[in-house]
Amino acid sequence: MAEGRRNARQNHIALARQVLDAVLEHGLRAGDHLPEQRFSKVCGVSRTPIRAAFKLLESKEILEWREEEGFFLLVAEPDALAEAARGLEDMDGSLAARILSDRADRRIGDVQSVSGLVRRYNASRHMVLNALKILSRDGVLTQLPGRAWAFQPMFDSPKAIDDSFAMRLTLEPQAITAPGFALDPKRAGLMRGQMDELLRSREGAITAAGFLRVDTDFHGLIAECCRNRFLRGTLLTHHRLRQATQKDTAIPDFRLRQALEEHLDILDSLERGQFDLAADQMTLHLRRSRNRRSEAATRGFAPMMRGPRR
Fold it and tell me: Do domains 2-91 and 158-298 have the same CATH topology?
């Protein structure tokens, strides 16, 4: 029974996304009526599941129910509808998380078919395809010729993590010194605020997951500010893969704070336009980060010296 309710819920989420797509495609405006019969034909289902999808969108304040009249569109701006679609995708992301968890624990192989995943997870084809798209967007999967999907190399061994650092040591400093690099001051300010807030927190309050989120956001910002499209694309894909698949490592609090201080040092240099210095700082930061990972894995924590922040 519980599995049946979960599948029905997932189908309602999928239908709600179809409704949003139809709203955009037909150029509907705020205040327009959404007839159930019309949308049941558009989506190829009966009125009962359409009504459930409408109620789901009503709970997200996209639609409004009027007694004796039906459902009406409250929000029609493309950006707002796109945000609502992302919210629905997050609700549907549990299947993607299950697939990723099974791959990380080696319960499924590197190459998978849609039909095989449908059978394994007792899910609809639409749900599986959406989960695969989520994982593909994060750089975890690529579609092979035909209907198969292949997992990218994951952060599932010390060797994989070391290979990642080796690649980043080559590319991230180059991204900073590539012609046209331009730091986004607004995003840099937001990043600085997040890191300052973590540094002000009490000792032991910085979680590994919280640090990883800020760390990948910081390195992703550096990549996005690079004007070399190939460097930018490679690094952004890699950082999405890091965030999606890298497992938490128990690194001591003072080591995490050191890394945050190093991020801020790099930002200081970038804001002053000292790109060569920032690239050198990035190289040193990545080497230290690789050492921190190695120390955490071996439970050895050798002292590391660095100067005080300005």
Answer: no
Q: Return the CATH number of the domain spanning residue range 94-151.
A: 1.10.10.10
Q: Span 158-298: which CATH code? A: 1.20.120.530
Question: 188, 267 in Cβ contact below 8 A?
Answer: yes
Angle of CA points 146, 243, 283, to nearest 5°: 115
- Mean pLDDT for the chain? 83
> Structural domain boundaries of the chain?
2-91, 94-151, 158-298
Checking if the pLDDT of 300 tops 60, the result is no
2-91: CATH number: 1.10.10.10
Q: What is the distance between the alpha carbons of residues 48 and 52, in angstroms, rounded to a whole number?
A: 6
β-pair partners for 112: 149
Pair of tokens at residue 103: 């791959």
The larger pLDDT score, comparing residue 94 to residue 114, is at: 114
User: pLDDT for 261-283, tens place per residue?
Assistant: 999 999 999 999 999 999 999 99
pLDDT (mean) for 225-237: 92
Give which of 143, 132, 25, 147 is closest to 89, Cα–Cα: 132
Compute the distance between CA of residue 73 and CA of residue 58 in angstroms, rounded to an integer: 9
Answering whether pTM is above 0.85, one says no
